Automatic annotation (TrEMBL):
It comes from the Bacteria. It holds the Pfam family DUF29. This is Uncharacterized protein DUF29. InterPro entries: DUF29. It comes from Sodalis ligni.
Length: 143
């Protein structure tokens, strides 16, 4: 069965929604529909990883460049905590993947922190030094 998936994605989405609403399940483009559903889950996970990375960068800078602590870093930390909290509220099953997501995000954050601070990455802890509860605590700022 040929569909508009490759030639008119928006039209394809509307067509699939209409088929679902009308109960015409046999006419659905299940192969592409499944791929899109899986992609949506991957997007949510990628967003969480990105938010964690953006949180870890100023936390690392806060700890390793204490003399430069400022309002901008504090506000970035606060903003990302709120956004991470909302993402996990909308997709609580992402919590099952948190250890791996945190590890990946932290590794990327260390590279960014090295670039932004000129502190060699070997100075930073090799794995995330804070627990999820700790870095999500609104009162937590590393010493």
């Amino acid at each position: 069965m040929t569909t508009r998936y490759d030639s008119d994605f928006y039209g394809w989405t509307q067509e699939q929604a209409d088929l679902l609403r009308s109960g015409r399940l046999a006419e659905l483009d299940t192969k592409n529909l499944l791929a899109e559903i899986e992609s949506m889950g991957t997007s949510a996970e990628n967003e969480l990883e990105s938010r964690l990375e953006v949180l870890f960068i100023p936390l690392l800078k806060w700890q390793f460049q204490a003399e430069r602590q400022g309002r901008s870093w504090r506000l970035t930390i606060e903003e990302q905590r709120r956004k991470i909290e909302r993402r996990l509220k909308k997709s609580p099953s992402l919590k099952h993947n948190l250890p791996e997501i945190i590890e990946d995000a932290y590794g990327d954050a260390v590279i960014s922190a090295e670039r932004e601070t000129n502190i060699k990455r070997t100075v930073f802890p090799s794995s995330c030094p804070w627990s999820f509860e700790q870095f999500m605590d609104p009162a937590f700022y590393p010493e």
